Amino acid sequence: AAGVIQSPRHLIKEKRETATLKCYPIPRHDTVYWYQQGPGQDPQFLISFYEKMQSDKGSIPDRFSAQQFSDYHSELNMSSLELGDSALYFCASSSQGARLNEQYFGPGTRLTVT
Amino acid sequence: DAKTTQPNSMESNEEEPVHLPCNHSTISGTDYIHWYRQLPSQGPEYVIHGLTSNVNNRMASLAIAEDRKSSTLILHRATLRDAAVYYCILRVYNNAGNMLTFGGGTRLMVKP
Known about the structure:
The complex is a heterodimer.
Chain A: E1 5-7, E2 10-13, E3 19-24, E4 31-37, E5 44-50, E6 53-57, E7 64-68, E8 74-78, E9 87-94, E10 104-105, E11 109-113
Parallel strand pairs in A: 2-11
Antiparallel strand pairs in A: 1-3, 3-8, 4-5, 4-9, 5-6, 7-8, 9-10, 9-11
Chain B: E1 9-13, E2 18-23, E3 31-38, E4 45-50, E5 55-56, E6 61-64, E7 70-75, E8 84-92, E9 106-111
Parallel strand pairs in B: 1-9
Antiparallel strand pairs in B: 2-7, 3-4, 3-8, 5-6, 6-7, 8-9
């Protein structure tokens, strides 16, 4: 079965640079979530989209923005990168048609800011 | 928001049952109990969920106390592959996508 695809899997950037992470949800899933997991920490919710509209917002810095496109893929744009942005970034998708919106997670993008 | 409390870590022997407890004394009537787990270097994955009745699936069983203030995730025969952090999460069912709030999971270690 198709899973959530994230690209790139690894990314190294320098401070103050920008980064774009991409997420391709499971086919026919209409909701995308972004989570950030720092070293030794639990995943923290950043933002989510349903049918291309932002649906929930968590602890996402103002330097970050995201959107969901017409084909339901999503991109997380990160600017003015800081050392503290080094983390695993997970994308998850779900279908509103599924009764309890189980979320399916991708393998993550490991971002290292030097 | 209703909170959950889980032990920081637990140990189990391979091929033995494991009971992972979760306390949620402030749970509301509309909260579903979800369990996710995160294997090392992987994204979280859904395990099971329930509302009031005990639930079984191919991965695990979920036993829910009658007053719903606690629940237990049961792995019937632990394998090395079950070593992971297990999160007990309360979620309200609605039609809008809602986030998962991860916090204070149980790190399960499985010994061969």
